[in-house]
Amino acid sequence: MAHRVAVIGGDGIGPEVVAEGLKVIEAAGVRLDTAPYDLGGSRYLRDGTVLDDATVAEWRSFDALYMGAVGTPEVPPGVIERGLLLKMRFELDLYINLRPFTAPGHDFVVIRENTEGTYAGEGGFLRRGTPAEIATQGSVNTRHGVERAVRYAFDLAMTRRKHVTLVHKTNVLTFSGDLWERAFNEVASEYPEVSTAYNHVDAACIYFVEDPARYDVIVTDNLFGDILTDLGGAVSGGIGLAPTANLHPGRVSMFEPVHGSAPDIVGTARANPVAAILSGAMMLDHLGETDAAERIRKACDGAESLTGTTSQIGDAVAARLAR
Ligand code: IPM
Ligand code: MN
Hints:
Blueprint: E1 3-10, H1 14-27, E2 32-36, H2 41-47, H3 53-59, E3 64-69, H4 79-91, E4 96-103, E5 106-113, E6 123-126, E7 134-137, H5 143-158, E8 163-168, H6 176-188, E9 195-200, H7 201-210, E10 217-220, H8 222-235, E11 243-247, E12 253-257, H9 274-286, H10 290-299, H11 310-320
Parallel strand pairs: 1-2, 1-3, 3-12, 5-10, 8-9, 8-10
Antiparallel strand pairs: 4-5, 4-11, 6-7, 11-12
The structure holds 3-isopropylmalic acid (IPM) and manganese (II) ion.
């Protein structure tokens, strides 16, 4: 039976890389029943639609969502990011943002809490536009939200090298840091086989560059995770290789590359589709097609050395899957 997948190509290079991901999934022998959704900055500019509730309701009956990238420079910051991508993550409660980094010398996973923190949108303006204006932007950290992310990290570590690092900034963010630290330590006590570490986020940036081998599973908050995973991509073969799963285990989940819509290279065929292809593999894991997912990952081995246009790289990966 074909899996039902909503496909959001999005803006910029999004549709280009998603096409290659779908091509590779087909080459791996997995049948998808896809439904395209025209959403993103270009759609917004055309008719004002960002993401309506009826669409979100429809998505709940799909098996997965596969997305390219959203955002265009013509739309003010936040409209599409908050109104489409974050709405998707929040409304579908995709509380795990899973970002694996694999390259020679790199084999670690970042579990980024995906529904809270500074992304929750707490805050506001007072006297905006006046000399006395005030802007606040709070960070929301619930015990429930933190604990489920931490627990996911420990469960994942049990299937890997059994090591979890908490990354935060407990020396400055003494309220949220305290909650994270206590939740982390309490969950850790349930996993005696898993060893743990703690790094401040600034120090973690150094280790990402100088000693990434110390990491197995990292768990961190939404904003630290956003920043760290761009760095993770940059140090492990480039952002063009880094995939993401936005998960609510057991429910419809969303898969997208870490990278953005890259409007500067749209239409040049220079976009690397490997991140989208690997995101497709993560989607297959979620759909229970673990064998095909593994074969796609194998076909992407050494992908940092693949050259050519977007579709040539997609073709090369698909050709390696020919059975
Ligand atoms: C990401 C992106 C998004 C984020 C943006 C586009 C809102 O940078 O998925 O990492 O900050 O989460
Ligand atoms: Mn990001």
